[in-house]
Structure formats: C-alpha cells, structure tokens
Amino acid sequence: MENAKLNKLIGLLETIVESFNEYSSEKRPFSEVNGWNWPSITYDDLARIPESLITSIGKLPNPVVDKELEENVIQSCKNLESLTTKTLPYIFNGNGDRAIPAYLATMDGVRLTLSPLLGWDMIVEQKAMPKQLANRLRSIEAQLTEIVPQKDDLIKQIRLIQNATETAENLPADLQSLKDARAKVTNQHLNKSPLFWRVVHVQPSSSLLKPVFSMNY
To answer: Quick check: pTM over 0.85?
Structure first.
C-alpha cells in the first residue's frame, strides 16, 4: 500500500496481534478464569479485532486518504502506540478487568477513524462503493440476468401494444373515412340510376306536385 500513514497504522495493529499471540495461550473466556467482573471473551477475541482491521484495509486496492483522514490516522497511530506501551501489559498481569475496556474503546476509535474507507465494499472491476448500494446493485444485476433471456418476447409484446395503441388512436378517423366513402358511393349509384324522381313546379294556382318519370339511357 502506497500511503505511509496507513502502513504505519497496519504495523502497529500487527504488533498488538503478536502481543496476544506471544504472551498468552489461554483459550478460556476471562470471566471463566477471573470471575464475573471480567468480560466473557478470550485473548483470541481481542486479537481478532486488530486482525479484522488489517484484513479490511488490505482489501482496498487504492485507498483515497484526504487531509482530514490522514490527520485522524496519525492520531490513531499515536493512540495505538500509547495503548501498546501503557495499557496492553495490564491485560496480561491480572488487571484486565480495567485494561480490556480501555483496549476495546481504543480499537473502536481506530475503526471509527477508518470508517470512511472501511464503509466501502468491493464489487466487479475493483470499483468501490457503499456496501448497501453494492448489495442493491447485485440484486438488480440478478434481476436483469433473469430478464435478458426473455428480451425477444418482451420486444414482441411491446410492439403489439404499440400497434394496438396506434390502431385505437386512428380508429375515429378511419370510421369517418369509411362513412364518407360509403356516402360517396351511394350518391354515385343514385346519379347513374336509369330511374329517378324529378320534382317540378306546376302552375302557381296548383297546390300539387306531380312526379314526372324520365328515362335516361
């Protein structure tokens, strides 16, 4: 890893892990060995905390450390140095009931410092993003994988819907065109008929209209 401050932090965490591995082989929980006022965890549990931080940092291909984060990392390094020299020895000399809470609080502080980096998850093509967003994208990717084989059927259905919509939109105009065409045909038929009525006016004194038959050939 290129960032010198993160490398120093990793080195301090590794030193703490080695301390637990070196100074004690006890596997029983502290509460079982020393009494109820001790936490129900083991030396291995305490060692796994810095180990998990080291592993998480190592998964970051190119961590971006801005000025604020770098300052916090520097402070975390100082805290770990103080923890190693002033607090860690008391975990092994019988005063762990007070030293272990201090150790856990310091580790929480280191994890909080690294949260801008460790809150990101690795997905395809080594690109990082928030874990919840990565999980959401994986879910969407799985849904798309199911949809893709049905693409051709979906395209056909969409085209059918589009054609049906277009037909429905044109239906009033088509019906009016049909009505106009029918009226035109009817008029043409009547005009060409050999027999039709011609109404003429008779003398003004007459109140009757007489139908006159005319034959056109």
So the answer is: no
Domain ranges of the chain: 4-118
In tens, the pLDDT along 156-191 reads 878 888 877 777 776 676 677 777 777 776 766 566
pLDDT digits (tens, 9 = 90+) for 79-90: 999 999 999 999
Q: What residues form DSSP beta bridges with 197?
A: 213
DSSP the chain: ---HHHHHHHHHHHHHHHHHHHH----S-HHHHH-TTS-S--HHHHHHHHHHHHHHHHT-SS----HHHHHHHHHHHHHHHHIIIIIHHHHHTT-HHHHHHHHHHHHHHHHHHHHHHHTEEE-GGG-EEEHHHHHHHHHHHHHHHHHGGGHHHHHHHHHHHHHHHHHHHHHHHHHHHHHHHHHHHHHHHHHT-SEEEEE----TT-----EEEEE--
